[in-house]
Each structure stands twice: as structure tokens, then as C-alpha cells.
Specification:
The protein has four helices and eleven strands, in the order H-E-E-E-E-H-E-H-H-E-E-E-E-E-E. It has 175 residues and is mainly beta. Flavin mononucleotide binds next to strand 2, helix 2 and helix 3.
């Protein structure tokens, strides 16, 4: 039996995540925010569409620098991931407040987060102003090769997260 479902909660049905941490830097200031509304739109070079609200402090840093890193955490970082989504770089230095270790990126000025299992160095190549969408090209990708099945976090809404678990292999024609 299916029930009528509130439209403002539909995102929780479709959203696949993984929840990521976006790092930015501009003019001596650095920030990190939690982000989950993103999607792949090209294989190579990898291109990602990413919604960043202009209410966020990160928006200004991303807008002005034209660069960011997408850092992909596993569930061990869950508390820090939520903390970065519940606070603003306008008020605190989240790297210090939540003990996140910064690493220098190779091609962009935004820092990478050491504790995350993967880091994508990105530059803004296009915008969809109406929806606050930044189109990001991945210039460089780093991944922890020791982690075979990363247990990433996937937001379901209202503070509920699905943690990636079992992996199965099927003959899919998709690369
Ligand atoms: C699980 C989760 C997912 C989020 N996804 C997004 C998102 O896709 N886009 C966005 O603009 N904000 C998103 N947020 C909200 C920002 O992380 C939040 O507004 C944060 O305080 C912004 O930090 P800043 O002001 O330092 O940039 C999300 C928050 C959480 C907890």
C-alpha cells in the first residue's frame, strides 16, 4: 500500500550521494561545507554538476576562485560531515573546530581533506545561475588504494543516512 508523499521530501527518494565535503579558498580564507546534490554529467574529462546555495559562505569562495575540491568521506567521518553542514565558515574555522587535516592540492588553491578516502581537484567550467548549479571539471583525482569497498554516506533526508554496504558484480555494458 503506497501513501501520498510530500513533494519537499522527494529528494530523499532519488538522491544517491555520496555525501561529500567541498573545500574552497579565496583571498586567504578557506572553508569546507557538506554537499549532497551533485551528479556526474561526463566521463572524461569527468564533469560534475553541483548545487551550492548562495546562502552558504562557500558559495562566495567558489564563485570568486572558480575552484574547489570534492572530498569524499566514509561513515567514520559522519559526525564531522554533519557538523560541517550545520555550521558556517562565516562564524568558525571548521578545519580547526572539527579537527580536519588540510593537505595541499596539486593544481588548485583549495585544500584537500586528508581523512577523506578520495579527493577531486576541480575547476568551474560553467554555471546554471537559476539553480545555483556549478559545472565542475575534475582536473586531478586522488584515491586511497588500500580501501577496496569504501563505506560512503548517502543522505535520505531529515538526518537519515544510508551507509554503502554490499557490492555485487553483474555484466553491465556501462563502463
Ligand atoms: C547532508 C547534508 C547535505 C547538504 N547538501 C547541500 C547541497 O547539496 N548544497 C548546498 O548548498 N548545501 C548543502 N548542505 C548545507 C550546507 O552544508 C550548509 O548550509 C553549510 O552550513 C554551509 O557552510 P558554509 O556557510 O561554511 O559554506 C547540506 C548539508 C547536509 C548536512
Amino acid at each position: 500500500m503506497k501513501r501520498d508523499f510530500p513533494l519537499d521530501e522527494v529528494y530523499g527518494l532519488l538522491e544517491t550521494g555520496p555525501v561529500v565535503l567541498i573545500t574552497t579558498a579565496w583571498n586567504g580564507t578557506q572553508d569546507v561545507m557538506t554537499q549532497s546534490w551533485h551528479m556526474m554529467i561526463e566521463f572524461e574529462p569527468p564533469v560534475i554538476a553541483c548545487v551550492v546555495s548562495n546562502a552558504n559562505y562557500s558559495f562566495g569562495l567558489l564563485d570568486k576562485s572558480g575552484e574547489c575540491a570534492i572530498n569524499i568521506p566514509t561513515f567514520e567521518l559522519a559526525d564531522k560531515v554533519v557538523a560541517c553542514g550545520n555550521s558556517s565558515g562565516r562564524d568558525i574555522d571548521k578545519f580547526e573546530a572539527f579537527s580536519l587535516k588540510r593537505e595541499k592540492a596539486s593544481l588548485i588553491s583549495a585544500p584537500l581533506i586528508d581523512e577523506c578516502y578520495a579527493n577531486l581537484e576541480c575547476r568551474v567550467i560553467d554555471r546554471v545561475q537559476t539553480y545555483g548549479i556549478f559545472i565542475l571539471e575534475v582536473l586531478k583525482a586522488w584515491v586511497n588504494q588500500d580501501l577496496k569497498a569504501p563505506r560512503t554516506m548517502h543522505h535520505r533526508g531529515h538526518g537519515e543516512f544510508m551507509i554503502a554496504g554490499e557490492t555485487i558484480r553483474l555484466p553491465s555494458k556501462m563502463k
